[in-house]
Each structure stands twice: as structure tokens, then as C-alpha cells.
Specification:
Dna Ligase, domain 1, four-stranded parallel sheet, globular, binds adenosine monophosphate, alpha+beta, single chain, D-amino Acid Aminotransferase, Chain A, domain 1
Length: about 375
Amino acid sequence: MKIGILGGGQLARMMALAGIPLGMEFIFLEPAAEACAAGLGEHLHGDYNDPTLLAELVKRADVVTYEFENVPAATAEFLTSHTLVFPPAEALAVAQDRWIEKNFLNHLAIPTPAYAAVNSLAELTQVMPSFGYPAILKSRTQGYDGKGQSVLHTEHDLANAWQILKGVPAIVEAFIPFEREVSIIAARNRSHEIVFYPLSENHHRKGILRTAQCLPNDSLQAQAEELVSRLLNALDYVGVLALEFFVVNNQLMANEFAPRVHNSGHWSIEGAQISQFENHLRAITDLPLGSTAPVGFSAMINFIGALPDIKQVLTIPNAHLHSYNKKPRKGRKIAHACLRTFTADALQDGIEKLRALADITDKS
Ligand code: AMP
């Protein structure tokens, strides 16, 4: 079974690392010459909309998936009409545009922050009184890791924020004074079987995920499972999906979803019976899904921009290092470490040590 992946970054790399033991082979379509997944399969080097490469991918792969959601619509359309593509193109189309995404979530009665589409500074100025300050302005498309967004503190911020976005279509969103940020990762296979991972509690800095901790037995688990099931079923989804939430008054409010394996689920490589990467591959190849049960206590810490001294990371008992083989660069996720322990105390101890190492080398 050969899996075609659009993208050859760390998510593609971790999918391949999970699939190779199952006898799967991989082919990556990736524009960057130095794709960190490339050593684990064939690398089709070129643009996502290159017709020759897409035809090659269709010919060589049994099923196509992707590691990021900003796949050009024409690419998704071409692939869908020529081969099996999971998750479905509709999930991509919805997740690519924050306004369409929020409309979709609200249509399913999945609560979100109040929002409005704005296409000009005049429209932004006009809607602001109904939001109040602070609020957040976000580009509708192409935003990730906090890029393409600005916090609006007063009316004096509007012109500048609009200029930063370079006038692209945007949404303005109420600022949510959340108690926590959590996400749920779920997988749905081609036979419509669904499994859920335990919630993950996520901490961001400068819009980039820093730590994600598995929360077995969280009181919001059942609510999160119910909400994500609505989304999976409405999209007739196949694969892994992550739904991110703000927790407000101990209730879940959706921020966004990712139609792919997700950074907040990297702890599942060591911390769950079967990882999100393997379950994604099982889902898209019509295999039975594996157990998502947690194994001990686990958390993951991202290394941004630079890697700490490997010896220091590995001196921490139970730390597993996942280096993506990427060149260090400001703001770039280049590795993560996962901790899996027998006790909650040992986990907290390890998290503090790893956070300290990550902070020393942090270049975000
Ligand atoms: P996003 O790219 O929308 O996931 O935003 C990145 C991070 O910015 C989130 O994980 C939050 O920490 C923060 N953020 C985004 N939207 C809001 C909001 N409406 N209220 C408060 N914080 C937010």
C-alpha cells in the first residue's frame, strides 16, 4: 500500500514513521527541496498544482492524504476526481477559511466566539461597537501559528491592524478570556467507526503551541466527544481531525479545527496505545482503528527555532526526543520532546525541566 502525502514536513515524516511498520510506503509532493520527510519515501519535488506531478502522484499512490489544509482547491478537485483522497475535499474547503469554518460550526450548534466578516477598514470600524475591546482581527485564509492576526485594544489599533493584514478579507472575533485551551483529536475510518483521544491541554506563546498535555478523565471529555462527532459526521470525514477549544465557565467554545494530524496530539506517539499518526493511516486505508487509551501520564514540549543540547534533553528520565531534521530558523518548529511517566508528579517535574531547556534556546 503506497500513501501519497501532500507536504513533506514533520507531520508527513511522523505519518511515515508510523506507517512503515505496517508495511506502507510513502510518496511526498512537496515544493521545498529539503523536505524533512523525504528520507522516508519518494519525493516529488514541485508545486502542489503542477499537473505532471499530480498525475504522477495519482498513478503511484493508492490513496492520497495531506499534512496541511491550505491545499489549493484546484489540486484537491483534481485529486478527488482521479483517486481516493482523505480527508474529503469539503473538510479542506471549510477549514481553509475562518469565516466559512465558523459558519459551519455554528450551523452544527458548536459554539464559537462572536465573529463577523470584514472586507475593509470602514466595515471593521462599523462593526467594532458591537464587539467591544479587546477583540481579534484575523485573516480569513492562510493563517497559522498566530500569523495573520492582531489584537485590537482600542479604536486607535484598527487602521494599523488593517494595514498589517494588507487589506485581505478578514474576520473580527470577540476576545475570549479563557480559563484553559484544550483540543480533542478524533479519528473516523472509512467504515464510519470513530475513536477519540483524551483531551489535550494546550499552552501557546506568541500564537505558537508550546506544550500539550494529555488529560485523562477530564470533566469536559464527553462534551468534546459529542461536539467533534457532529463535525466528523457532517463532513462524512475520514482520517484524524483536531478540534481546538477555549474553556470558558467550564464550557467548551470552538476556536478552529484542523483536518489532519495535529501538534497537540504528538504526545500520543508514546502516550497512547496507538498514536494519532497510525490511526490516521488506518482510517484512510480502511483498517480497524486502534485503541486511543492513554499509557501513563504524558505531555509534549515543542522546540522552536533551535534545538537544545540533545544530551541535556536525554538526561531527563522518560524524555523521548523527536527531531525533525530541519534547519534551525526563527519561529520554526524543529523538534519536540514527549514525556511519558508513571506518576503525575514525575510528569510535572519533567515538564518543568523540558520547558526550561526549551526556553533557553527558544527563537520564536
Ligand atoms: P488561532 O490561529 O486562531 O488558533 O490562534 C492562535 C492562538 O491565539 C490561540 O490558540 C489562542 O491562544 C489565541 N486566540 C485566538 N483567538 C482568540 C480569541 N478569540 N480570544 C482569545 N485568544 C485567542
